Amino acid sequence: MILVTGGAGFIGANFILDWLAQTGEGVVTLDKLTYAGNLHNLDRLQGDARHVFVHGDIADRALLERLLAEHQPRAIVHFAAESHVDRSIHGPEDFIQTNVVGTFRLLEAARQYWQALPAPEKEAFRFLHVSTDEVYGTLSPTDPAFTEQHNTLPNSPYSASKAASDHLVRAWHHTYGLPVLTTNCSNNYGPLQFPEKLIPLVIVNALAGKDLPIYGDGQQVRDWLYVGDHCGAIRRVLEAGRPGETYNIGGHNEMTNLRIVQGICALLGELRPRADGRPYASQITHVKDRPGHDRRYAIDAGKIERELGWRPAETFDTGIRKTVQWYLDHPEWVAQVQSGAYREWVAQQYATA
Fold it and tell me: What pLDDT, on the 0 to 100 scale, is given for residue 196?
């Protein structure tokens, strides 16, 4: 079996559901269940003997050692992270604690466990660290896309904490020989994403008749990766990636935030028209840009295609249609995650400029 940290979050839960469907191999999920970790994301696995859920913190070294000794995983897939840039600006300490200290303790527990394995299991063991393209910093409109050789130049507390964890993972490989793999992905979207991120926030707000907030002029460019494609890429890296290597995972979908929001409005107009007949785009409002907002990210995913044969299966058009339809079909999930604390957060963060 494998151990997955952060498996009740957006990408982690999608990965576990996909993993069990594609491989059937057992999973131990470790998740702290902070605001974005939602055990309901794994509801369909209730009663499934292949899945074990453990409520706990990756910074709890004793718990990590117990889990590794008890379950003897052949790999660790490390998703657990604080991941929202805006939250990192308002409260960076949680990001340092989870993304840096937590990753350090997980690496140390993994190293101790790996060093004691018999030779065949030791050779086969992998530690896969899931990171982000934000560690590379920002690009101008004409710069070439980020490759794995780009220096890390993080500009937010979140991206700085993830860059720090990337460096720790690299160091544990070069110093101790721990067989690590690192993936740096572009912006994910898809089912089960907590509605503080752009795409689910726009869908949920549009349906509720609320403002659709866009930072600044909305011309910030991101590469968008459907979460199901990301899950497939991680499976492939775990299967065939070379220890010590980094693989960029992108969706080949660069576009501005404004275009994303306008596209969602058009889709909702087709799939769930407003009762008053007005376009959802009439709800768009521009708000004050956030501090240090990176202008453009772009991923060069050529290495993973050349070496491992992976390419995304979804175009943005197919992926966003699946995503919008999922949120339309699951209003109960949206209602469940929209706690009072979440509403207060959105009101604080997206005050109209």
Answer: 84
- Percent of the chain clearing pLDDT 90 (strictly above): 89
Alpha-carbon gap, residue 314 to 320, rounded angstroms: 9
What is the CATH classification number for the domain harbouring 134? 3.40.50.720
Residues of the chain with pLDDT below 70 are: 340-353
In the numeric block, the tokens 């131990």 are attached to 28
One-character DSSP codes across 73-99? -SEEEE------HHHHHH-THHHIIII
* Contact criterion met (CB below 8 Å) for 77 and 5: yes
Q: CA 287, CA 309: separation in Å to the nearest integer?
A: 41
Burial (CB count <10 Å: 0-12, 13-18, 19+), residue 23 = middle
Which amino acid does the sequence have at 161?
S
The rounded distance, in Å, linking the Cα atoms of 317 and 229 is 14
Q: Which residues are known catalytic residues? A: 133-134, 158
Asked whether residue 37 is assigned to any structural domain, the reply reads yes
Q: Which residue range(s) make up the domain with 25?
A: 2-190+225-252+296-314
